[in-house]
Design brief:
By secondary structure, the chain is an alpha/beta fold. The chain has 6 helices and 9 strands, in the order E-E-H-E-H-E-H-E-H-E-H-E-H-E-E. The protein has a 7-stranded mixed beta sheet with strand order 5-4-3-6-7-9-8, with helices on both faces. Strand 6, helix 5 and strand 7 form a beta-alpha-beta unit. It has a single domain, classed as Vaccinia Virus protein VP39 (Rossmann fold, 3-Layer(aba) Sandwich), CATH 3.40.50.150.
Length: 181
C-alpha cells in the first residue's frame, strides 16, 4: 500500500493509504502545502476531479472544508478514498466512481463549487468541451496541475475562460484560475 501524510488541520500527521498497484503520482506534501498556503478552504465546497489517492480533498477537509466531492474512475482508488474517509470519521463527502468528463456532463448546471481541483494524469489530453464545462462549476478557484514543459496547450485553453496565476513546483505547473474580470 502507498501512503501519504496529511500536512495540516485537524488530521495533521495522519496517514492515508491507497493501492500501489495502480500508477499514481500523488501530490507531494510540498505542492499540497504550497496550494493550501495560497487559498482559504475554511467552509468551502470542493470538487476534486481525477481524485486519485484523495489527498487533496482529504487535506481540504482536514483544513476546514465544508464538503468535498471526489471523482475518480478507478473503482480501487474510489474504494480506498471512501475507506480513508471512514477511518478518519469524516462524513461530509461524496465519492463518485466515474470518468471526470462524464461527471461534468451529467451534472453541468446543477451545482457549483468554491474550488474545483483537477489533477489528471500528465498524459491526459482535454477535449474542447472540458474548459467550458469546468467554468460552469467554479465559484471562486479552478486549480489545475499539469506537467512542466507540456502545459502550453492547457494554458492557452485556460486563458480563454479564466484569469490565472501560474506556479512551478519541480516537474509540475499549478494554475490558480479564477473568473475573468
Amino acid at each position: 500500500m502507498g501512503e501519504i501524510r496529511i500536512t495540516g488541520g485537524e488530521f495533521r500527521g495522519r496517514i492515508i493509504r491507497f493501492p500501489d498497484d495502480i500508477f499514481l503520482r500523488p501530490l507531494t506534501s510540498l505542492i499540497r502545502k504550497a496550494i493550501f498556503d495560497s487559498i482559504d478552504v475554511e467552509g468551502a465546497e470542493i470538487l476534486d476531479l481525477f481524485a486519485g489517492s484523495g489527498s487533496f480533498g482529504i487535506e481540504a477537509l482536514s483544513r476546514g472544508a465544508k464538503k468535498v466531492v471526489f471523482v475518480e474512475k478507478s473503482k480501487k482508488l474510489s474504494s480506498a478514498i471512501s475507506k480513508n474517509l471512514q477511518i478518519l470519521g469524516i462524513k461530509s463527502y461524496e465519492v463518485v466512481n466515474q470518468d471526470a468528463m462524464s461527471f461534468l456532463k451529467s451534472r453541468s448546471g446543477k451545482e457549483k463549487y468554491d474550488i474545483v481541483f483537477c489533477d489528471p494524469p500528465f498524459s491526459t489530453k482535454f477535449d474542447k468541451e472540458f474548459f467550458p464545462l469546468i467554468k460552469n462549476f467554479v465559484r471562486t478557484y479552478f486549480i489545475l496541475r499539469r506537467q512542466k514543459g507540456k502545459d502550453s496547450e492547457d494554458e492557452k485553453n485556460l486563458s480563454e475562460f479564466f484569469s490565472y496565476k501560474k506556479r512551478i513546483y519541480s516537474d509540475s505547473v499549478v494554475f490558480f484560475a479564477f473568473e475573468k474580470e
